[in-house]
Amino acid sequence: MAGNLSFDQLKKAAQTGEIDTVLACAVDMQGRLVGKRFLAQYFVDSAHDETHGCNYLLADDIDMEPVPGYKAASWSKGYGDFVMKPDLATLRQIPWLEKTALVLCDLLDHHSHEDLAHSPRAILRKQVKRLTERGYIGYFASELEFYLFSESYDAARKKHWQGIETASPYIGDYQIGITTKEEGIMRRLRNEMQAAGIPIENSKGEWGPGQEEINVRYAEALEMADRHVILKNGAKEIADSEGKAITFMAKYNYGLAGNSSHIHNSLWSADGKTPLFYDRQGPWTLSALGQAWSAGQLKYAKEFTWFLAPYINSYKRFQSGTFAPTKIMWSEDNRTAGFRLCGEGTKGIRMECRIGGADLNPYLAFAALIAAGLAGIDEKLELQKPFVGDAYQASRLPEIPKTLREATETMAKSKMLKAAFGEEVIEHYVHTARWEQFEYDRRITDWELHRGFERY
């Protein structure tokens, strides 16, 4: 991945005091940055080679609670260390934190120094390697949506996350006048991400009051995933510094649009110059390779839905008439579809997966899409004809899993995913999903109290 800072530049900046802090960050199962803040000079002298962290960070839940039942890490094994190996190609200075650089780390076994197979970055690396072995580059782009609030995280917490004032009072989808009012944050986000080596194409208002979308320039799959997680983390930090709050929840409010993370993906030649999905003479100008790849993603969509929708809340987003898909099918430039063909008739032709929410982990999501696409190629699948019309009203189309429980059990039975990721990796994430379900099933919600405290 191309950061904006070389190691030699960091050395000089640490000596002059231009940079005094280095964030060494790994990515956890939830797609968050975890790690340490180093004195820059110490990082340059020593920690750039490796540092360590507790292996419970890949065996916990979103509340950072150690979860029983994982084979990879447990109390009985003592929750030992893993190695955090800085990938110096990802080194960058981040403008929104004073005198601070950031580097992403790969997670390695403490004894063998081999990749931890269940770490998100290693999972995606494995699938990228499969592409490379065939002479392909997978180009990906993830569109991120979020709600911007005029109140701080502290204020939202004191309100118990209810009645928080959005940055705009009504829907301003594409409206310049409304989004001008939100420019204090959005301008910083675009410019400071660009300065951190994350090329931003544009931002726009979305289909909810105070809802935003930001689009990052497409890149090779691993680089795009790296950009995605740094962007999410930085967006929250920038908002917090301005006394604002952001949420990437898939569905924070029943009555409002959900937050998606649409994923555009295509294959190119190894040198990145030839688009392998474009065939001017082919049906829909989509090559036979692109058709098989897309057919694989359609065939296995139910099996990998969890990688696009990993929480209880994720499934609240799949509602008719909300621009979130409910059916597994593909269509030409149709936003009711689970998969939409974009760029038809151009070298930029690609398939957009619309199933994922903004709460997904991009490493896991991209890896699942690659695995399914390669399965489609290996199985020589034929792409069905595109759906035409309103997919919400089509009763005979296969449906996206409606609940986390359904998606989890479908993933647990997937032979394709086990073959691509390894059985132990799938077992690890099935356990993660079942724990999320277990935690929800035993909780009493505000909705239950409101509905039943007096009336039962």
State the share of residues found in helices, binned by percent: 25-40%
Total beta-strand segments: 16
Rg from Cα: 22 Å
Distance between the termini: 57 Å
- Number of contiguous helices: 14
Main pleated sheet: 6 strands, mixed
Instruction: Tell me the series of helices and strands, N- to C-terminal.
Output: HEEHEEEEHEEHHHEEEHEEHHEEEHHHHH
Shape: globular
What is the SS-derived class?
Answer: alpha+beta
Mean pLDDT comes to 95
Strand content: 15-25%
Regions with little confidence, pLDDT below 50 for 5+ residues: none
Family: Belongs to the glutamine synthetase family.
Cofactor: Mg(2+)
InterPro entries: Gln_synt_N_sf, Gln_synth/guanido_kin_cat_dom, Gln_synth_cat_dom
Protein name: Glutamine synthetase family protein
What does this structure look like?
By secondary structure, the protein is α+β, with helices and mostly antiparallel strands. The strands form three sheets. Strands 1, 2, 3, 4, 5 and 6 form a six-stranded mixed β-sheet that branches. The mean pLDDT is 95. 47% of the residues are buried. The protein is built from 14 helices and 16 strands. The protein is 33% helix and 18% strand. Residues 120-456 form the GS catalytic domain. InterPro entries: Gln_synt_N_sf (IPR036651), Gln_synth/guanido_kin_cat_dom (IPR014746), Gln_synth_cat_dom (IPR008146). Its cofactor is Mg(2+). It holds the Pfam family Gln-synt_C.
